[in-house]
Amino acid sequence: MSGTFLIDIGNSALKWAAISTPQNTGVMVYSDPIELAEQVRDFYQKQRPELIYACTVADARVAETLNAVCRRTRVEWLGSQRIFRGRLTLENRYEDYSKLGADRWYAAIGAVAKHPGTGLLVIQMGTALTADSIHCLGESRYEYLGGRIAPGPTMMYTMLMGGAARLKSIAPGTLSRFPLNTNDAVTTGIFDCIEGFMRGGLASLGEDASVKLVVTGGAARFFEFEIRERFPRAVFDDNLVITGLAARVASEAEKEH
Ligand SMILES: Nc1ncnc2c1ncn2[C@@H]1O[C@H](COP(=O)(O)OP(=O)(O)O)[C@@H](O)[C@H]1O
Ligand SMILES: CC(C)(COP(=O)(O)O)[C@@H](O)C(=O)NCCC(=O)O
Q: What pTM, to 2 d.p., does this model score?
């Protein structure tokens, strides 16, 4: 499978890895498809991909950019599934399974593959903030129960800066019990939102102490210290979506044999 790559396109960044080394991810941060096209061209020239398995939740133009730059490469777009059957089984309870963001679905598969045998709350801190609940039914059988979506931390900052006249230029501040300046007030407020959001996800799983809290996404490391302090059981994991995509590809290959 040399020449085969996995790609996860989010709203702020494209993450990629060779299928043989899914733990080594490359990242292309972008703000528009043109900026991304240059980075994808560079990836294409250096890696010469023959086959790409990709998932996307970004604007359709971003996928078109990848297809256009890699037009000599077969690109297979993978969406969410009603059920994943591989070394483990994960049933999707979303009302319409196809509407569940593919990054959430593959992160769920990746999280279960890496942290088997227990219930999970998967927190993704990217452009958006998501918390997805997974129940362990036993014997490698899991159920994706549903999840929450809120603005991600960067979006929270930019929304405040865009919408409040006196908050036009906020810099990151420090968390404080009684913030005494605007930067600290905003940083503390945003972290409170993240903490409450995470607690909401944990509460939905009945405060079960055996539930593992898995945190991922580009903004996760920025809040790692505070999250570890408030949630000592939190595990940080960098490439859940890519791991989930690798599991999907492996499951399809096993079906063919
Ligand atoms: N140091 C940081 N502090 C806060 N946010 C950050 C930091 N580094 C990256 N981010 C944010 O992480 C997000 C990108 O993470 P990622 O998980 O790749 O998102 P997506 O999957 O939505 O593309 C962006 O919103 C970016 O602003
Ligand atoms: C929730 C999301 C915006 C997260 O995107 P991201 O922050 O990873 O760029 C994305 O998964 C999405 O567009 N989902 C579709 C709607 C849904 O999952 O119900």
A: 0.97
